[in-house]
Amino acid sequence: KIRILKHHLCLSPPNPSFLHFFVFLCFVSELRFCDFFLRSKQKRRKPKTKVSKFLKISLFFVFSEDPKKKKRAFFFYSSIKRVFENPMGTGFSLFHKNLSSCYGDRDLCKPGLGDLPESCVALILQSLDPVEICRFSKLNRAFHGASWADFVWESKLPPDYRLILEKILGGFPENLSKRDIFTFLSRVNSFDEGNKKAWVDKRTGGLCLCISAKGLTITGIDDRRYWSHIPTDDSRFSSVAYVQQIWWFQVDGEIDFPFPAGTYSVYFRLHLGKPGKRFGWRVCDTEQVHGWNIKPVRFQLSTEDGQHSSSQCMLTEAGNWSHHHAGDFVVGKSKSSSTKIKFSMTQIDCTHTKGGLCLDSVVVYPSSCKNRLRQN
User: Fold this and answer.
1) Which of 156-160, 317-321, 327-331 has the highest mean pLDDT?
2) pLDDT tens-digit readout, 43-84
3) Cα–Cα distance, 161 to 68 (Å, whole number)
4) Which of 113, 117, 233, 322 is most buried per CB count within 10 Å?
5) Contact 292, 354 (CB under 8 A)
6) Per-residue pLDDT at 14
7) Where in the sequence is the signal peptide annotated (predicted)?
């Protein structure tokens, strides 16, 4: 289904023989590249002869999942001059005959999108996001070669990618291209004995971090009367911490990591009820859920440079995984070392017991990814 958005005066006439013309930019849902051919008539220089000039415009479109991000189109043009014998009354059909053969005639279509220098294509790819770069690399050889340029991928990497690699791997790998480094960082990488995971978002290039329940300090976790670790496929770490019944509920954690400059949000991933499987189907046991709707749970976040935030809420939604916001923190551009943050989740009112809660992990996301996190 073709949606014609609006027409634009896309190019000024290359020479005085061309009149003003408009090109309709048709954005097709599945089409990423297409050619337009425009013809300009000239006066006859001899009887029964027509000189036509074709302007070939090669367009490829850039679509974005972000509704706030505008659609973009890049185009290149070349002028081709052909002389046709034009008997009276056959001009219209002759034009379509020659126009239909333009796609297979190399003499008519000498310059094309594949003839662009890789350095020129690389400059265009630099303005796209990583997912779009990989898609356009399949267009032709010029785009494929340009998609491996180091300066293209260095602009997509976090500024402190060397410190991030040293934190995850314990050292910086040599002889890797910038594209290989981005590919490695965009995967979920485990470190700190598998209790933490870090990766770079493929769309935005923002750093994401996840800390398992085993990487947190939980009061009474070693007492099997209160806490236990249960296996589940719903967790990145294959197991979650489950509290059966307790009076004093307190979870603390901290992380020291080289976060790039930006604003980040901290969430606790929780689940009311005990998840499991029965006959291959996922089920949730909510019999032991109690005490969370009497007094609110308090979430706190603090950083070493004095930032502090706190919030509280009731836990009422049973049977589904939910992310509870603990707070936001800002990393300045001038900061080049690691950022240390502390966070906690408490419900220490000992007038009643509470239980039936699963604690999966604590996640740190760029604040720009809030909507995507809620959808997940």
Assistant:
1) 327-331
2) 444 444 444 444 445 554 444 455 555 555 444 444 444 434
3) 28
4) 113
5) yes
6) 40
7) none
Question: What's the CA gap between 176 and 365, in Å, rounded?
Answer: 27
The pTM of this model reads 0.68
Distance in angstroms (rounded) separating the CA atoms of residues 71 and 83: 38
Q: Which of 200, 228, 196, 226 is nearest to 211 (CA)?
A: 196
**How many Å apart are CA 276 and CA 370, to the nearest integer?**
28
Residue 150 contacts residue 177 (beta carbons within 8 Å): yes
Q: Cβ distance 242 to 275 under 8 Å? A: no
Domains and CATH numbers, the chain: 2-115 (no CATH), 189-375 (2.60.120.260)
**What is the per-residue pLDDT for 334?**
72
How would residue 240 be classed by pLDDT, with cut points 50, 70 and 90?
very high
What Rg value do the Cα atoms of the chain yield, rounded? 30
Tell me the percentage of the chain whose pLDDT exceeds 70: 67
Residue with tokens 């002389």: 83
The bridge status of strand 196-200 relative to strand 189-191 is antiparallel
pLDDT value of residue 376: 55
What are the φ/ψ torsions at residue 374 (nearest 5 degrees)? -65, -35
Q: Characterize 30-58 residue by residue with b for buried, 16 or more Cβ atoms within 10 angstroms of its Cβ, and e for exposed.
A: eeeeeebbbebeeeeeeeeebbbbbbbbb
Q: What pairing do the DSSP bridges indicate for beta strands 207-212 and 339-347?
A: unpaired
